[in-house]
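*** Fold description ***
***
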Amino acid sequence: MSLLAVICGAEGWDEMAWFGSSKRSWLETWLDLPNGTPCADTFRRVLSSLDPEEFNRCFVAWMAAVSKGMAGEVVAIDGKTMRGSFAKKLGKSPVHMVSAWAAENALVLGQLATEEKSNEITAIPQLLALLELTGATVTIDAMGCQRKIAEAIVDKGADYILALKGNQSTLHDEVAGFFTHARQTGFKDTPFSFHETVDGDHGRIEVRRVWATPEVEWMSVRKEWKKLSTLILVESERTVDGQTSTEQRHYISSHADLDAEQLGARIRAHWSIENSLHWVLDVVFDEDRCRIRQGHGAENLAWMRKLALAAFKRETSLKKKSVNQKRKTAAWDHDYALRVLLSISAEA
């Protein structure tokens, strides 16, 4: 009933109870409700008491049952803070969720909560341990660029593409210096591949250039990074209203057989976790403004939202509708709401 309420637009305990009472006659066609539908306090007690780790295991097991394997899939890992979940009087920080996102299938594979963003470093290996990743490419921003995380990804039978920034200053400076010299000399005696794309709309033009090279033998820390095989430079040149800006980003990868075009596509796919997951959770499911913060309520309701989102992705009769439009349709059309709910069955 809670999941169905979230599918139909409910944002918290009161709205779940409101949904139940208003839909009682319909719910009674397939649920036994001799004492009526639950009140808001009952929804709160149950969903705040459930162990989120068990919820996570159930979700991961469900994904393993319905997925067709991860071979060739880009799995983006990133964190998001649920800003409304803090409780100042209780000394409770906002819940920070780290999620694994299958970019092509647009589905969440798993999530773990941390108290602070810095704890992503410890949460990511725990999340990786739960997932089936054989054949996947795992992409993580600079926060997750750690030797143990790279090793954990390879040990799961996957490859990695990790962003470099200041938290790995020596490695970042070495890679940045290498590409600066290589470009100045026209990559003389350096094997490389190159790919360029040009996109433009609404007065914006973006030129995206990707260089990739297997030249890693010279690196002082190469052996510290398991299966390190390729260095990548991505340069984005944006022109908006006549003003041009350029940004460079550097990456390391365990892929030894992909060229600049293929690597660039995987790096770009990483950002779908921001556009297709985090943005949808905030704008469509209003997650950032949710003030639920007692017990495990915030974490478990986050699971409900992600499960509802997965259900909408699995039910394909309204392919051209947005998630927001699908939620409204579910609230108005009982048959569609039931189809969305039943789509999470492994047999669906």
About this structure: The beta strands are 74-82, 95-102, 107-114, 137-140, 159-164, 193-201, 204-213, 230-240, 243-253. Residues 297-314 form the longest helix (18 residues).
